[in-house]
Amino acid sequence: MGKIALLVPREEMVYQAHNILQEKSYQDKHYQIGIMKVVRTRNVVVEARQAIAEGASIIIARGLQASVIKQYTNIPVIEIVITAQEMALLVVKAKEILKKESPVIAVVGFRNMFCDMSYFDEIYGIELKTFYAPDNDQLRSYALRAVEEQVDLVIGGDVAVEVAAEHNVPSLFLSNTEDSLRNAFSMAESVSYAMDVEKKNAAQMETIMDYSFGAVVNVDGEGKITAVNPLMEDMLGLTRQEIMGRRLTEVFPDLDERQVERTLHQAGDGYSAFLQIRSASVFAILAPVIIEDRADGAILTCHKMKRKLTAEQESREKRRSSGVIALGRFSDILQESAAMEACVHQAKLYALSELPVLIEGEAGTEKRLIAQSIHNAGLRSRSGFADISCAGLGEEEQYALIFGEHGAAVQANGGTILLEDADWLTPANQYRLLQLIRYKLRWEREIIQNKHVDVRIMVSGQKPGSLFALVQEGKFREDLYYLLQGLLLKIPPLRLRQEDLQRKLQYSIRESCEKYDRYHVLSPEAMEFLLSCRWPGNLFQIENYCERLILTASKRTIDQKTARELLEELYGETSLSNQEGRGAAKAEKGPSVETEEEGEDLRRIKLVRTLKQYGGNRAKTAEALGISKATLWRWMKKYEL
After folding, report:
1. Taking all residues of the chain, what is their mean pLDDT, rounded to a whole number?
2. How many C-beta atoms lie closer than 10 Å to residue 131's C-beta?
3. Residue 59 DSSP SS3
4. Distances (CA, A) of 462 to 359, 416, 433
5. pTM to 2 decimals?
């Protein structure tokens, strides 16, 4: 709380202040009234400035002294105002003195000293006349006017009482009780608290700007820069003094002036743009500061775009991902859902075997990661892992990549080969694969040159069930299919794995934010909407969608409308309807429409499970479910939990 100075014209007011501050309620508030003085009006400005020099941030004063201090200083002044109760006591005392029906009573002083006395005439049976002097020099003349109007009694300060005595008119001195001082103290406390909050907010803003990972400037409603952080100074190559007070579009000429004006005056969604600043590519976001549904300035945040990898770095990354080494582990797989947990458990069992594995899953599911994890958890983990896609390759190309002298069978001897898109295998290479699996033979051009190799085979098709469909069409060897199908692993799509879907959305949003040095969050409604969508592209689709969402987001909190519009723009309305997802996980047998009751049951089961998981902790439960605590409370009330 700021330091408060009490400057008053009479000694008894200081005594009253001391009495008030001795009360326990005031001692508990730790009042910072460090200066209490009796001052003359002619010296009040000097005394006020001295108090300010000694650390006072608020001054309590009365009447003309308060008005003068306000005029010649720039700190808050709390006026001591006579309360209605205090005036009532004076009026009652005046009637006792006069012993007259409906006496005429004059109040002489300065307007800011008195409470509202509009209904005193009716309440107390008097005729009340007020004589408010504009300044100290005219106070005596206003008192004379009261006497000249032949009032029965004058209530006022020293000057008014003196004038009344000179003309033999009864008078009462206008004295404060402790009530008016208490009111002044209370108001001073409120003002001090508001000042502290403002200082705290300003300090927090300054800290946020100074320690932000982005370059930031604050702009007022006229588009002028009012604050700038050190990162922005470095980015612009200008000092704070060179930036402050200039128009935003003057410092950032690449910004569209119309968009800036719209953001500042129409309280829109904000504006984002790519800028060139000192030969650097910069992504900028101008976000309006909204107060009571209208824009009151804006904040511009700038982030340098990350540079592409150098040729050497790219070469290193390519070597790491060339397929010779399996990097994936079971711990890398999202498996918070019961469906994926069961799938991973089955895959771990398959890791104990040497038989081939047929992995089925939609585009964008963890087929390659599952294969790498099985390899790394098995007996062949110390040997190589080769990953070959058969898609779009002809007979000779497939042969060379898989069975040739420098093919995968040779490179991964003792290890594992993953053949992706096996539906593209030609009949001749299907036969060679059968020999490789069944007899550990690598068939070359001439039968006499067949060589022994020991590799484990894993296979995946482009779509679930695609190999079996080819068998039925006579385009894939039946014996090879059943050789592969012994260890069949079906990866459920994300729409049937709500917990994994939610976590993937959260991860992708966070990774995209980190990539572009931005900070955005999904609103609970946006998360609910995205959880209800089909996501036929699964992990790949979500990663690309979230990156686009973050890259084009104009507001810190992304709402449902923004999420829906982008999804429709990219994939059309077919991606919006998850006909299978929000119900209980089940084997896919074609599209089935989930009923409202199934959705409610799933939500209740999910809610109960999550509450148990976090021991009833509502904050952690809401965070895990991706909803607000208010939404959690509504759900718990609805399901009587």
Report:
1. 84
2. 21
3. strand
4. 10, 20, 18
5. 0.51
